[in-house]
Amino acid sequence: MPAFPRRLAPEVRRSLDNFPVVALTGPRQCGKTTLARSLLDGHDNALYLDLERPSDLRKLADPEWFLSSQKDKLVCIDEIQRHPDLFPVLRSLVDEWGTPGHFLVLGSASRDLLRQSSESLAGRIVYKRLTPFLPNELPPDSPIETFLNRGGFPRSLLAADEAASLEWRESFITTSLERDLRQWAGFSGATMSRLWRMLAHHNGQTINLSELAAALGVSAPSVRHYIDLLASTYMLEVVPPYHSNLGKRLVKSPRFYVADSGLTHALLGIRNFPEAMGHPGLGAVWEQCVLATLIGNFPDAGIAFYRTAQQAEIDFVVTVRGIVFAVECKASLSPVLSRGNHNAIADIAPVRTFVVTPGKEAWPLAPDIHCVSLQQLVEGMTELTACRTVPNSA
Q: Would you say 248 and 346 are in contact if contact means Cβ atoms under 8 Å apart?
């Protein structure tokens, strides 16, 4: 299986030079352990502990005693969310040692969820989110169609063929989503499967949770709990509506996206890209791909969607360092902006509007409206946020 460098690796190395604890979060099977092991391989003295391995758990029967003996090592602790009781021990040790680069902890829960358990490490820990592979992490000649169909999870994207990729995704859905998460949510396997597939069918849409609950025969709070759980484990992205003082009647409910295009295709029964081309959900899957690219490359950005009662609409309003961009996703090589798109751009007044297509060419559609590829989207936003002076809000 070929290996591609992860864009996050240099950031994690720099953080280890400055913080005693670095937390690497992300969904299961996205490559956290592989990235961590590559960092440990380049370290003179390192130790890897997996909290799902009984032998490693036994070493931590007295965690303070064991970890205090590893002062001169970089210690990686995988699946840290299973034992949040370790965080106070880490705090005690790093305060005693007073130097950076002691612990790299990996977790399949979100930064917000882990933060609740690691509050004692405030000022001593930095969080880095690893996503599945992003399109701009792959070689330039990689077909975007393959990425759209397989998604970014390494074992799916880098599988030998489409059949092997689909087999991995179906297994992942069964084990990680319908079994592991079911234990936490308290739903039956059949209900969990139906809910997850209903979310895939409503990919990129606002959802009435009461109607969804009625269709499943469960309570609305139960559905809300499960959706919160999916979001906290990076299986679902919740995009809020854009709010500003525009004096417009705005849609108030969030949009939901399954976190990976390959998982969406597996849930919808789409086996290959030709089948995806004929599916009504292709546009939402392309939005999903663009959203993943934005999240992975601009982790601190504010991302929302814009839609008014008058049908003015933009897929994503992205705010980076106070700079506002409009991002419209078009699953076409000949994109055309609607009147609603133009009205939304006029309402939002972004620094630049990017119309993102599956192609490789870039061209201007109008002043400050540019048609771009995913790679060019990242490059354009990076350049504008690096060179533009952000006004003082004081």
A: no
Q: Which of 18-22, 113-117, 305-309 shows the lowest mean pLDDT across its residues?
A: 113-117
CB-based contact 121:87 (threshold 8 Å): yes
Domain for residue 2, yes or no? no
The residue whose two tokens read 């099977």 is: 29
Kindly state whether residues 212 and 353 are assigned to the same domain.
Answer: yes
Pairing label, strands 352-356, 323-329: parallel
pLDDT at 371: 98
- Give the Cα separation of 102 and 19 in Å (integer): 8
Instruction: Pick the last residue of a domain from 129, 146, 161.
Output: 129
Q: Which helix (H) or strand (E) holds 53?
A: none
Residue with tokens 């546009």: 283
Residues 22 and 71 in one domain: yes
Q: Where are the alpha helices (DSSP H) in the chain?
A: 9-18, 32-41, 54-59, 63-68, 86-97, 111-117, 144-150, 154-157, 162-172, 181-185, 189-201, 209-216, 220-232, 261-268, 273-277, 282-297, 339-348, 374-387
d(CA 8, CA 16): 13
> pLDDT value at position 146?
95
Per-residue tokens: 78: 């995988």
Q: Judge whether 216 and 225 are in contact, CB under 8 Å.
A: no
Q: Would you call 198 helix, strand, or coil by DSSP?
A: helix
Same domain, 323 and 233: yes
Q: What does the pLDDT read at residue 237?
A: 96
Does residue 139 share a domain with residue 90? no
Closest by CA to 122, choosing from 82, 77, 87, 72, is: 87
Following DSSP, what letter does each residue of 208-229 receive, concatenated?
Answer: -HHHHHHHHTS-HHHHHHHHHH
Of 189, 166, 167, 191, nearest to 178 (Cα)?
189
pLDDT at 393: 36
Cβ atoms of 196 and 244 within 8 Å: the answer is no
How confident is the model over 304-334, as pLDDT tens digits?
999 998 899 999 999 999 999 999 999 999 9
